[in-house]
Write the structure tokens for this entry.
Amino acid sequence: MSPPSTFAAVFIDTHAHLYHQQFAGDREAMLQRALDAGVKKLFLPNVDHDSIEGMDALAAAHPESCFAMMGLHPCSVGEQNDAAMQEVERLLRTRRYCAVGEIGIDLYWDKTWLVQQQDVFRQHVRWAKELDLPIAIHCRNSFAETIAIVEEENTEGLHGVFHCFTGTPEEAERVIALGGFVLGIGGVITYPKGGLFETMQVVGPEHCVLETDAPYLSPVPHRGKRNESSYIPFVAERLALATGRSVAEIASITTNNAERLFRR
């Protein structure tokens, strides 16, 4: 099924792993589909050392549309993280990256390294403040632990996105109260039992950006299949329905928010 018609709407995918091996067979065609769907900018979060080369190559090949971040994903944090973090810091200080990410805490798969994840996340946040970069936050099954650190570290210049936000209206308001943060809204808003549609009915779109998390979390009607950036209009359409706005309004609000956040 093709994305819904959105006329001349311009979208931004603020979180997509387009360097992933799942796109090896059709990456250029996939990127063209995104552009054809009105998705003009795509932000690429790093995962670990192994993802850097492919991510950098994609950003270099498409400098007008693909923008890379740098960080160590919480699922890549273990007992010893010094070497990985030294590499992240070295690369961040080259000023080649638009954000610090994907960073945060993940307690879905394993809680063994929670203390290490907290320490690594806090260090990322401090680098972001020093370098005046936004942060892209991963907080799966760990909203309380993650936002506690952001609240402790929050200063006037700290800004970022809570990627793949799936929380309650109260949690959304806690993010918004930070001052410089937005909610990353993706395919979960299209899931009948995801709860995000109902949350957004209360919260509204003013503090939101759109994302796919491609190749993961495909929106309905592609749920269960590989996700890609051309599916952003499905997310926009559902957010529009939840908030009583037109798709054009959602495109304008979320694109402006993303451009302001990433300065791209």
About this structure: Strands lie at 11-13, 39-44, 66-68, 100-104, 135-138, 160-162, 181-185, 208-210. The domain at 11-262 is CATH 3.20.20.140 (TIM Barrel).
